[in-house]
Amino acid sequence: MSATPADASQGGSIDHVLTEDRLFPPSAEFTKNAVISTQDQYEQLYAAARDTPDDFWRDQANEHLHWFEPFSEVCQWEAPDAKWFVGGKTNACYNCVDAHVEAGRGDKTAIIWEGEPGDKRTLSYRELQTEVAKCAEAYQQLGVGLGDVVSIYMPMTPELAIAMLACARIGAIHSVIFAGFSAESIADRNNDASAKLMITSDGLNRRGKVLPLKQTVDEALDKSTTVEKCLVLRRTGGDDTPMTEGRDVWWHDVVDTQPGVLPATPLESETPLFILYTSGSTGKPKGILHTTAGYNLWARRTFEWVFDHRDDDIYWCTADCGWITGHSYIVYGPMTAGATCLMYEGAPNHPAEDRFWDLVEKYKVTILYTAPTAVRAFIKWGDEHVDKHDLSSLRLLGSVGEGINPEAWMWYHEKIGGGKCPIVDTWWQTETGGIMMSPLPGITPTKPGSCTKPLPGVIPKIVDEIGNEVDSEHGGKLCISQPWPGMLRGIWGDPKRFVDQYFSDVPGQYLTGDNARRDSDGYYWIMGRIDDVINVSGHRLSTIEVESALVSHPDVCEAAVVGRPDDLKGQAIAAFVTTTNREVNDEFLKELKQHVRKQIGALAQPDDIRFTSALPKTRSGKIMRRLLRDVAAGRELAGDTSTLEDLASIASLQEKD
Ligand code: WTA
After folding, report:
1. E strand or H helix at 608, and its extent?
2. What's the CATH class of domain 28-41+69-524?
3. Cβ of 324 below 6 Å from ligand 1
4. Exposure on the CB side of residue 144, measured as CA atoms within 13 A
5. For 195-248, how does the pLDDT look when each residue is reduced to its tens digit (9 = 90+)?
6. Which of 305, 339, 537, 587 would be 373's cystine partner, CB 3.0–4.6 Å?
7. What ipTM, to 2 d.p.?
8. Test site for ligand 1: of 16, 277, 317, 428, most ligand atoms within 8 A of the Cβ
9. CATH assignment of 537-655?
């Protein structure tokens, strides 16, 4: 095993992640104090979870969750339906908040928050308990109870976490919608989930500007048939927030005025905890459903294993609560573990490109969990922003959202981690509830670009087109062959899609949608999606979703959307469109981009739009996406194009390169 740290070169293109063979073992010093500190310990945990899962998870659940009533059965599994900890009663909010107060740790800081303008707030677990209880009391007053869906569209403020936890407290189901989505997207999600209550704020601070969230929500509520009330947090101030009488209420009027004493309701283990919409291979986002006990346990244990959590850590996950990473690793995982979490509201480059490093230094962050797309942006912005700050408090770094390319990995390791912090490259999905594969920082020698090995309870299989296990070095579809506590329990309102999407290719096994290979050391390398999902700055988007948005414009006839490599975002969105007779010019181009923003949100705005007289199709009428991907990437056209119906269209697309 040799470690040969190379210079992190700056700029240039992303090097290929699948050819990396450098190995970086954890330092002896890190290993000495690590929660899991020997290979044997991992092997034992892994073998126990694989071979005697009921015993393993029974012990884990009894030790790491609070039970109002004990469960009688560990797991009922009849693919695709899993029920964990059957017969037991627990409460995720209790586990996150009250349990620490009960155990005499109420004074420990739960949340350290900083707003983008620089305002600050800290909440101890005891203070959090009161705030969450007040919010839950307000929900009840607004007619929300067990099984009702609450849509949350908010900035990254403590109230966002409070609103989530307050749902869990009374068995309401939260559906957090990232505050970059459009009114259309909010309305679609509200209607699909039959949301009863919507929570938002007057505005959101982003790069020094105020975005009027409530206005967007008002537009969404015009089309949301089930929403009865809207709870509004005053965040940015100003007198111009539109409030609809009888429907809209202010947070400071209905939450802050409550007594804050409502206890957590004991809930059946499989009580729905939240829905989170994510993109799949069709145009319609799907509401991934997670339930209470299994998810809560998985979030907690994976957090403790992967982040080597200790009581004095200051942990910072830079994700937004609008994504699964925020759910599992800002709220449920770290809080059940009683961690102190930093939460930041704004952009990483406001007021300057050193904002993250300023926060790390100021709050003495010890564990930092961020995304490769952010790391690549930091590299581009230049080392001088990092050099201004003392980052010596850091002891562990994490990465999530997409594979981290070796160049970014090396820079993260050297520049941010000072060459001493292990990097945990965590592979998982909205559907998996928590991390599935990751180095364990005290014991796993890391290879840049590999998420290394599965966590206890995760049994991966690599299969071919027809579901047979294959020579894993070559690679194939990645499946998980045993249920795990954090797995999704369904797609909201669409049981057929749930089976078709995840449990049909290889009956009885969960199909991840990713390709992967396993090398001779047993390390896994994620090779990208097998479906039409693209990964833009770590955000999942369906190409078909963007196509549908484009064709909803009256002047667009047909659209094909593909991902193309991008140094910063990982993948950028390239669209090819055929139009009506309208003249093609910059104004039309702008209008189309704006149209997609309005339909889905800014994150889905195409980077390139190319106009063409026809899209290349096979004789059977299928759009040749592979070919368009090559055109979008500026590559020589690969493969056989003899089945093309319209070769002229390819020629004209290429001319525009
Ligand atoms: C990709 C985010 C490689 C993958 C937690 C997966 C990754 C999708 C990694 C899920 C990683 C996430 N290495 N690929 N470390 N992490 N992915 O649902 O394609 O937003 O299927 O969950 O992101 O995205 P999602």
Report:
1. strand 608-611
2. alpha beta
3. yes
4. 32
5. 999 999 999 999 999 999 999 999 999 999 999 999 999 999 977 899 999 999
6. 537
7. 0.99
8. 428
9. 3.30.300.30
